[in-house]
Amino acid sequence: MDLASRLLLLLEVIEFGSFAKVSEHRNVNRSVISKQVSKLEDELGVRLLNRTTRSLSLTAAGSEMVRQAETLRALLNDTRRAAENYHSQPRGKLKISSSTLFGRQYVQLAVLEFQRKFPDVQVELLLEDRIVDMVGEGYDIGFRVGEPKSSNLIANKIARNRLLIVASPDFIKKHGLPQTVQELEKLPAVVYSSPGLIIDKIKYVDNNNLDAVIHLHAAYKVNEVEMLISSALSGNMFTVTTAQMIENEILQGTLIPIMTQIKLADYGHFYAVYPHRNPPIKTKLFIDTLKEIVGSKVPVWETRIPGFNNMYGHSG
């Protein structure tokens, strides 16, 4: 390992927070990481890290070397990107992250189609619902719901993802069709819940054109979005879901949109995010491939909900 590689390794240690996490990320023994950082210190003739059994911290020299490593990484990435744009066909490695369900449904299809067109590109796909550090973890593209808060990332809108309220025929037979928000709030619902987040309040616009909130009666809380649909299918509860999560349940009549007269607030859009304003050609081509699969103006998932354009306050 040369000086540049060791500098980049030091940067990873600081960004991941420990030797153990870097060793797991790189799939190498922890002692290898520690030894290479020690060699870097010997090569530079300064101590870079203060080590204790529980923590790591940078020395003044270490802070300066991390700044140099950040500059080096940016320069190397720019160099690779510039070189890739001279290729007539994309090649090399494309590292992608995506939220789990969207990745299973659509990014996987895009990967298979992309590799059919461009077999010289090796794709690595991570499906995880956490927010990935695009630069620190070396990802070329990420797919997320909602525009990124980080100003360091470029966002490219993929498709809208609107909300709807669904219940099974058995649920409707048992409870009747709610006609008002107050009636809906009394009915049992399954809602998404994870540490620090529970989605039991849904924004809508009331008859006076004012922002308002539906307070769902959470009879069941679950941290897996796919279980919202399966729970609603059971007939015990209704759920509020996104159109993207609907497969063929509405077409088959196993789920029915309810309270379609109210105007639900937009849930958000899917975005492709990437670190550079002028990404490599392989990044651009993969995004184009995904857009072809998802649909340009009307996303494919909305075509599985007949009349959706005229529900929940939408008109197109």
Overview of this protein structure:
There is one protein chain. With 316 residues, this protein is of the alpha+beta class. 36% of the residues lie in helices and 24% in strands. The chain has a five-stranded mixed β-sheet with strand order 4-3-5-16-6, covered by helices on one side. A three-stranded antiparallel β-sheet has the order 13-7-14. Strands 9-8-12 form a three-stranded mixed β-sheet, covered by helices on one side. Helix 1 (3-16) crosses helix 3 and helix 1 (3-16) crosses helix 4 (60-84).
Write the layout of secondary structure elements.
Layout (H helix, E strand, L loop, with lengths): L2 H14 L2 H8 L3 H15 L4 E3 L4 E3 L1 H25 L7 E7 L1 H18 L3 E7 L13 E5 L8 E7 L2 E5 L1 H7 L5 H5 L2 E7 L2 E2 L2 E5 L5 E5 L1 E6 L3 H8 L5 E4 L13 E2 L5 E2 L4 E6 L6 H14 L22
Parallel strand pairs: 3-4, 3-5, 8-12
Antiparallel strand pairs: 1-2, 5-16, 6-16, 7-13, 7-14, 8-9, 10-11, 10-15
- Give the strand order of the largest sheet, numbering strands 1, 2, ... along the chain: 4-3-5-16-6
* Number of helical regions: 9
CATH architecture label name of the largest domain: 3-Layer(aba) Sandwich
Residues in β-strands, percent = 15-25%
Topology, number of strands: 16
How many domains would you count in the coordinates? 3
Taking Cα atoms only, what radius of gyration do you get, to the nearest Å? 24 Å
For this structure, the CATH topology of the largest domain is D-Maltodextrin-Binding Protein, domain 2
CATH superfamily of the largest domain: Periplasmic binding protein-like II
Report the CATH C-level class of the largest domain.
Alpha Beta
Largest beta-sheet characterization: 5 strands, mixed
> Mean pLDDT across all residues, rounded?
89
